[in-house]
Every structure is written in C-alpha cells, then in structure tokens.
Amino acid sequence: MPYAWTVHPADPKRAEALARRVGVEPLIGQLLLNRGLRDPAEAGRFLAPSLSGLGDPLELPEMGEAVARIHRAIAAKEPILVFGDADVDGITASAIVYELLRARGAKVLTRLSNRLEDGYGLPAALIPRIVRLGIRLVILVDCGTNQRDEIRALARQGVDTVVLDHHVPSAQPARPRALVNPHCADASGRPQTASVGTPVAHPRRLASPNEAAGVPGLGRELCSAGLAFKLAQAMCGGDAPRLSSWLELAALGTLADCAPLLGDSRILVAEGTARILSTARPGLARVCESVRLSRPTPEQVLQRLVPRLNAPGRLGNPRPVLRLLLERNPRIVERLAAEAAEAHRQTKALSRRMIAEAHEQVNRIHFRDQWVVVVGRRGWHPGLVGPIAAQLADRYDRPAIAVALDARVGVGSGRAPSAFNLLEALRACEEILLRYGGHPQACGLTMHPQHLEQLRKQINRHAQASMPRERLNRTLRIDAEVRLDELTPPVVSRLEGFRPFGPGSPRPLMLLRDVGLETVSAAVRLTSGRTGIAVKGRRADVESGGRVDVVVSASYGDEVQVSICDVRAANAPRVAV
Predict the structure, then answer these.
(1) DSSP of 453-511, one letter per residue?
(2) DSSP assigned state of 255
(3) Nearest C-alpha neighbor of 236 from the set 50, 51, 46
(4) Quick one: fold of 4-48+476-569?
(5) In the CATH scheme, what architecture does the domain 57-246 have?
(6) Domain residue spans of the chain
(7) Which partner for 101 in 106, 192, 235, 295 could form a disulfide, CB atoms 3.0-4.6 Å apart?
C-alpha cells in the first residue's frame, strides 16, 4: 500500500524568530516548532539534553509523600518489598529502586510478577505472605495504579503501599499511601503534590487521551524506569555520580517501553544509551556482547538487546534478568546470561509458528474490511501475544489484537498506531472483558474465550465510528518542503541535535519536489541545477533519469547524504495537509 504524504504547515515568521534566538538556521527553527518547542530555552535544552535539564522530581504527583514514607521505613528498619512487572521497563525500574534503597541502608526484598501464573500486577495470593514476613511497606513498580482491591487488602493488614507507575488509571484508581503516576491529577489538571510527610486526599482523575498518549508536561512522557530514576533523583539530590550509575537502566527501560522521547525521557535516553555498552554491570555487558550490540543506538537496543531481556518474562520467569542486571559474580552472570539466551531461543521458535498462524487467520477474516485486526487461537503462548500483535499492526497498517485462548480464559495484547486510542476502544467493549488496561497504543486484556468474535465485531464498530477509513492508510508525516540547496553541511549537521530518534521525536523528514535522479556506477544522486546530493544505500525501486518528488532524511559524514523514504513521479497528484 503506498504512503499518503502529509506536510506539516510551515510558519516562516515564527520559525525565523525562534531560530534567531536559539542561534540556528530557519529550517531548524521550523523543525523545532513542529515538535511543539516554541520557547527558546526549551528548544535549547532539546538540542543539548543533559542531566542538568532534568525537572524537579517533587513536582510529580505524590512524590513527596513517597519519599517521606520510604525514609520512615528506612529509619524504622522496616523490611520493604519491591514488586515489579515482568517486562524490561518493570525489571529495570525494580533494579533502580532496589539498588537505591540498599544504598540508603534499607532492608529490601524483591519480587517480579509471573504473568502466566498470576496475571498482571500484584497477585492477591501474595498478600498473606507479605504480612507473615513482617513487611510494612510495598513499593509497586510498573503496576498497581488500578489494583484497588489488593492495595485495600494490604492496608487492612497494616501494610502501606507506594506505587511508581505510568499506566493510565481507571475511573476508580487505587488509593495507596502514595501514587506516583503522571497520569493522575486533580480536577484542575495539576499534579497532586504534598509537603513531605503530608497525606493527600486523592481527588484523582483520568488523563485525557491526549495526555495519556504522552504529551510532555508533568512527566507524562516517563515510563516506570524513568519514574524510578526520578525517585532516585528525589532521594539522592545532587549526587550526580550515584545517579549516573542508573542512567543505562533508565534508558533501557524507556526504549523498551517505547516511551515518547520528550522531556526527561529524552534526557535519560540521550545520556544513558551510550552508557549501555560501557556499563559497569557485568550481566548487562555480557548480554550486549552475546547479542553483538556494536553501536548503542535506540534502534540496535530495541532490535537486539530488548528481545533477549524480555524473553524469560514472556515464558513466565523474569527473575534471571533482574539478577543479571544486579549480579557481580562472573560465574553466576554467565549462568544467568545462558538462561536468557535459551529463553530467547524458545520464544523465537514459538513466535515463528504463532505469527504464521496469525497471518493465515487474518487472511481468512478479510482484514481489509476490518479497522482493527483481532485474532486468537488455542495453543498460543500467552506471553508472546504482545509481539504478535505488534507484528500484525506493522504488517497490516492498523490496530491489532492477538489473544491466546484456552478452555477457561483468553489472554490478549493489542498494539495500535498513534492515530488510534486502543485503550478507549477497549473501554467501549468492557462489558465483555474480564480485565484490561495499559496505554493508548499498547494494551493487555483477559476475556472469556467464547467472546472473541463478539470482541472483533464490537471493537470494529467503535473504530469505524471514531476513525475515518483513510486514517488507516500508511502516512509519512513530513516536516518541511525544502529545496535541495537548503540541505547544506551546517544545516544537516545540526540535525544530529535531534537525536535520539524514536516515539515523540521522529527523524526529521524533508520533501524535495521536482528533482533529478541520476545513477553513475551504481551510485545514486539527487540533482537540481548545480546542486547534487548522494543517496545513501541502494534503491532498486528508484529509476534513474526522471524527475521525481522524494521524501528524504539527511545525514552528514564526509558529505551530505540523504536516505530515500518514498518517491513518486514529479507530476503525481500532490497530497497536502
């Protein structure tokens, strides 16, 4: 299916004014405006992210109360349980909180969820054991926001809870001692804050879909690993060396969770990704070596490192990965790395079979008539439905849900492009769901197996009513239409300041109209009058000798080069926003 092209509306006056104040070229000013950066100081921090630009952690909802309760537990020598989710975000966040508390002298126990045995979040069956162990504070990491009953049960037993979580709250979220969740705010839309030691009244509300999607402000771009780092920032103050020891974990969790690379998340990834290869953590270093991570780019981290670290949790036991991140003994590290490698081998084999069966099912249900692709099958591994949904969404350019069925229950996961709020769509189907939650673009659910077809019909009715069919088309969102001679070395070099690229901060794309395409000795160049720019890589689908409109991203090494994202004949119909 060909791409639709949409070009961001230009605002030359504002772009020039911003560029002048920041000290950059007008094109760079326009690209900054496109990312919502209108304040020169904010734009400067975006182009040069550093730890000094991190926001005040005590501005996050209830962070002050969380810090106060943890300090009281440490002072009273109360055992603390850190309970985290099973994915890389939850594991890295748990590792940060564990090391932070140990460094402050706390007695800390850790536990990770087993999604296959207990489902998502803190299992109710664990509560009696927590009480028997004499634990008086449980810190729930990457879960807990919507576990109202479990947190209430703990409170009845005299156990306080602190929640560090970024999942969107339900209409009635939990009421722990402190709920550090950027998507919870009072009726004014402001985060709840309390002076240290002051209980809060919990007048929380559900964030709007736009807020929930990660619009910067109040920390909504942060995943749970980022929130764990903010807790460390609140407790360690200006101890930069100590904070730096957790940067690679925060960056890894942020990338794994596909959090928007804006605000503090952008800083954590910009500062932390390079530290992944130079990490002082033997376990992480060993996994980087085994997956041949040669460059610490977000793309390589996502493609090579994250699947290896996610694999044990998908099979039900994430504990080896947490130990791998914390362990210093070389022999134990080698054993744990081998366990992670074997789990990854198993998940790859299972995924190949499941995705083949999923594609076969999609073709049978005539997916072109479906706004949302919903597939399910008995025998599928419930820990792998998330990656399957992601592959389906990418392959068919629309939201997708994959459900692993057995005789009693269906466990599913969904993924959606940014144009569609999957969480809202599941809310429209909640009467046939046992449980659901997550983010606008990534959700989990459980349901009775017999309701699969009803879910397919109901969620598609909602999607068809809320989203025009043309929104299903693949779209290239283009930053600016430029002339070839505007892509000068200074301008293209400045584009490096837009790294790291990822959700919320895409690689800048430019549209060049009516340029020539030349091939000489297998080298391709775009030409316009006297100006020529080399095309990076080979494009077998691009014919030489014609005039074309082309969408490119630009980079600078020894010379300016462009990578072609899409191309069409120069006389093709124009698509504009």
Answers:
(1) HHHHHHHHHHHHHHS-GGGGS-EEEE-EEE-GGG--HHHHHHGGGGPSPBTTBPPP-EE
(2) H
(3) 51
(4) OB fold (Dihydrolipoamide Acetyltransferase, E2P) (2.40.50)
(5) Alpha-Beta Complex (3.90)
(6) 4-48+476-569, 57-246, 365-472
(7) 106
Q: Is the Cα torsion angle 491, 576, 463, 213 positive or negative in sign?
A: positive
- Gap between the Cα atoms of 575 and 153, Å rounded: 57
> How far is 445 from 447, CA to CA, in rounded Å?
7
Q: What angle do CA 309, 311, 315 make, to 5 degrees?
A: 140
**Helices 330-364 and 306-314 meet at what angle, rounded to 10?**
80
Q: What is the pLDDT of residues 397-410, one digit of tens each?
A: 899 999 999 988 99
First-to-last CA distance in the chain?
Answer: 20
Pseudo-torsion of CA 574, 503, 498, 215, nearest 10°? 100
**Pairing of β 108-112 and β 80-84:** parallel
Record the pTM: 0.88
Q: How far apart are the C-alpha atoms of 19 and 37, rounded to whole Å?
A: 11
Pairing mode, if any, of strands 480-482 and 475-478? unpaired
Per residue in 306-350, pLDDT (tens digit) is 999 999 999 999 999 999 999 999 999 999 999 999 999 999 999
Q: Assign a CATH topology to domain 365-472.
A: Diaminopimelate Epimerase; Chain A, domain 1 (3.10.310)
Instruction: DSSP for 257-310, please give it.
Output: TT----HHHHHHHHHHHHHHHT-S-HHHHHHHHHTT--S--HHHIIIIIHHHHH
Paired residues of 554 in beta bridges: 562
